[in-house]
Amino acid sequence: MPSETILAIDPALRSTGYAILTRVGKKITTPAFGVIRNHPKLPLSGCLLAIRDQITAIILRHQPQALAVEAVIYVQSYQTAITLGAARGAAILAAAENGLPAYEYAPRRVKQAVVGRGAADKTQVAFMVRALLGLTQTPPADAADALAIGLTHFQTLDAARARKTPLTGI
């Protein structure tokens, strides 16, 4: 049975969550997950470069077939939205440079897919990710969000295959 490997990203300027998820049949494993941390004094351009470089290294190490990323969310501050969008762009750029298709998922959809409720909080997402993947420890919040995005991608991919329709990337 062929395996599928994806890279899932929860983008942020200072702490980008990432997860590698591999599926063989119905079994999903997580060979790697964590948080890309940037120093608070690092300027925006340096953060974006670090995000792209570290995601590229993860791609080269694990050879995923696709990127799943959180969609831009509504925030009260335009500055925050711009910063999140820039971090997201750095992740998508790394994927594009390495020939990976990218797919985006709204935060409410991710929470609905993993927890069953679109208004779930981060602790509920982390708890369910741990339970669904059989992890021995609860991952850090940003990594848990990336794992949840990856699980959502696999669910969406299964639904598209059942309908015999292709997924549309970004």
Please characterize this protein's 3D structure.
The model has no long low-confidence stretch (mean pLDDT 93). Strand 4, helix 2 and strand 5 (102-105) form a beta-alpha-beta unit. This protein has five helices and five strands. It has helices spanning 44-62, 78-97, 107-115, 122-133, 141-163, and strands spanning 3-10, 15-24, 27-37, 66-70, 102-105. It has a five-stranded mixed sheet, sandwiched between helices. The radius of gyration is 15 Å and the shape is globular. The chain has one domain: Ribonuclease H-like superfamily/Ribonuclease H (Nucleotidyltransferase, domain 5).
Give the percentage of residues in beta strands: 15-25%
User: Segments where pLDDT lies below 50 for 5+ residues?
Assistant: none
The run of helices and strands is EEEHEHEHHH
CATH class: Alpha Beta
Q: Largest sheet, described in full?
A: 5 strands, mixed
Secondary structure class reads alpha/beta
The total of helices stands at 5
- As for the number of domains, it is 1
CATH architecture: 2-Layer Sandwich
Number of E-state strands: 5
Based on Cα principal axes, name the global outline. globular
Per the CATH scheme, the topology name is: Nucleotidyltransferase, domain 5
- Mean of the pLDDT scores? 93
The portion of residues assigned to helices is 40-55%
End-to-end CA span: 28 Å
**Strand neighbour order, sheet with most strands:** 3-2-1-4-5
Radius of gyration: 15 Å
Which superfamily, in CATH terms, is the homologous superfamily?
A: Ribonuclease H-like superfamily/Ribonuclease H
